[in-house]
Amino acid sequence: MISLAAVSGSTRRDAAGAQVTDLVDGAIAGAVGSVALNVVTYLDMTVRARPASSTPEESVRRLTDALHIGLGPEDRAANRRSGLGPLLGYAVGVACAAALTTVGLRRLPGPVAAGILGAGAMLTSDGMLTVLRVTDPRRWSRTDWLSDVVPHLAYGMAAVATLDQLGRARRPNRRLPFRARIHPD
């Protein structure tokens, strides 16, 4: 027997709709995770009194050079690199979470998903920095690794928590945390 859904193609549309939902939810979660990563990084800079990393700006310099993209005179180019470096980081964070969510990240247990998401973002960003020859992770100290791993774990945890909340908001018959009760007196 052929179902009405199969004839109308609604199953295909439902699957496509779910994929778009996963993509959008993943992008939102990636943005939230990127904020968490930056907060942890800035806290680390504050606690240890360490300077900001120059790798975001240097990666933009290397990327624009490789793509033959001019950013204007050097004084303006330096300012543009300062802005583009963090934006590149956000783009990586948003894209990683969006991509991993569309391939089924939500089906994994939360801690596993957070670890995979954090590791995926770290591998993507560090891989890009390595390919551009901005850094060489083989020469990093234990402190360097911790300064990279901890913020990426915060990224993964915040992104997965956001995905969970977005999924809960869509579930039918969900129990609301607060219900207004109106009693006519």
Number of distinct helices: 6
Radius of gyration: 21 Å
Mean pLDDT: 88
Strand content is under 5%
H/E element order: HHHHHH
Protein name: DUF1440 domain-containing protein
Transmembrane segments: 87-106, 112-132
Keywords: Membrane, Transmembrane, Transmembrane helix
Protein model, in words:
Keywords: Membrane, Transmembrane, Transmembrane helix. This is DUF1440 domain-containing protein. The chain has 185 residues and is mostly helical. The protein has one domain. Helix content is 74%, strand content 0%. The protein contains six helices and no strands. The longest helix is centred in the first third of the chain and has 39 residues. The protein is globular.
In short:
This is DUF1440 domain-containing protein. Helices cover 74% and strands 0% of the residues.
Secondary structure elements and their pairing?
Layout: H1 4-8, H2 10-48, H3 55-66, H4 74-102, H5 110-131, H6 142-170
Protein name: DUF1440 domain-containing protein
Transmembrane segments: 87-106, 112-132
Keywords: Membrane, Transmembrane, Transmembrane helix
Defining traits:
about 180 residues; mainly alpha
